[in-house]
Design goal:
With 288 residues, the chain is of the alpha+beta class. The chain contains ten helices and 14 strands. The chain is elongated and about 65 Å long. The N and C termini lie far apart (59 Å). About 5% of the residues have low confidence.
Length: 288
């Protein structure tokens, strides 16, 4: 194994684990080197070849030993360490969130870029939120939406299959809310359900569903919020959410879309000026 990983350079032993300087931190992110943040751990001691996973505590990159060797080691050795890539990835993602290595700018893929534009995303939004396209690997043909906390740690990844348009999400144990660093607590916070909803509406907290977690409630303490929900959400669920929010927020307003409006993103794109005027009335009613 060490021979296959020789291109990674020197290593150290920490707590019985092999540790290298992370090649992604050093070559791609230009992070400080000689930190030995890339750790190899044996998740299955009975399987020398397929039991190892790696994880960088600085940038969050993780995966199987096969992937590490294929990307940064001697590739000729990679087949010796190949295992069930899908199962391996899923197991790692339950503990540590990481981005796929096979990422590219969406501008390089005309169909993908045009689709994002139709959903109301500008070049500025795409760049600011670091939205990428996965061109190969396990998440091939998926649009990648990463979210970081205030410490720069990757805490959530939402992916959308470009063909089926279906979503999946991966959340870190330190996850609070999606795009939390883009939320200004001193202004009215608009609570939306889906990723595209929050990407077009200013100062949005995206639920990635309909549930409001305790972490989100803590985050929203002493803020003013506007809850926007799709028409298909039942009244009991709306009442529950309003009660939750009123327990911590200074003020809570609601906007329930009609069936014709479909969802927040669709309505915003089709009626941008009207939507902005409608939002402004809620801002005037907030206590901040």
């Amino acid at each position: 194994m060490l021979r296959a990983l020789k291109p990674l350079g020197d290593y150290q032993m920490k707590g019985g684990q092999l540790c290298f300087n992370c090649p992604r931190c050093e070559k791609e992110l230009k992070n400080p080197i000689n930190k030995y943040n890339l750790e190899l751990g044996n998740k299955n001691k009975n399987s020398v070849q397929t039991g190892f996973i790696y994880h960088c505590w600085a940038c969050g990159i993780s995966g199987s030993l096969y992937t590490l060797i294929k990307q940064y080691g001697y590739v000729d050795f990679a087949p010796l360490f190949k295992s069930d890539k899908k199962a391996n990835y899923e197991e790692v993602q339950q503990k540590h969130i990481s981005l796929p290595l096979e990422l590219a700018n969406v501008y390089n893929y005309t169909e993908v870029y045009n689709y994002l534009k139709k959903r109301g995303l500008t070049k500025e939004i795409i760049k600011e939120r670091e939205i990428k396209y996965c061109y190969d690997g396990y998440f091939k043909n998926n649009i990648i939406f990463p979210s970081y906390n205030s410490d720069g740690r990757l805490t959530a990844v939402v992916i959308q299959n470009f063909t089926t348009k279906k979503y999946r999400k991966f959340l870190d144990t330190e996850f609070v809310c999606f795009y939390e660093t883009f939320i200004n607590k001193k202004s009215l916070i608009v609570i939306t359900e889906g990723a595209f909803d929050g990407l077009v509406v200013p100062n949005s907290l995206i639920l990635l569903g309909t549930e409001i977690s305790d972490k989100i409630l803590d985050f929203l303490t002493h803020t003013d919020v506007l809850l926007i929900l799709d028409a298909d959400v039942n009244k009991d669920l709306i009442d529950k959410k309003v009660t939750q929010l009123k327990s911590v927020c200074n003020s809570v307003q609601t906007m329930i879309l009609t069936t014709e409006q479909d969802d927040v993103n669709y309505f915003y794109v089709k009626n941008t000026n009207f939507f902005k005027r409608k939002l402004s009335s809620y801002y005037k009613q907030s206590t901040i």
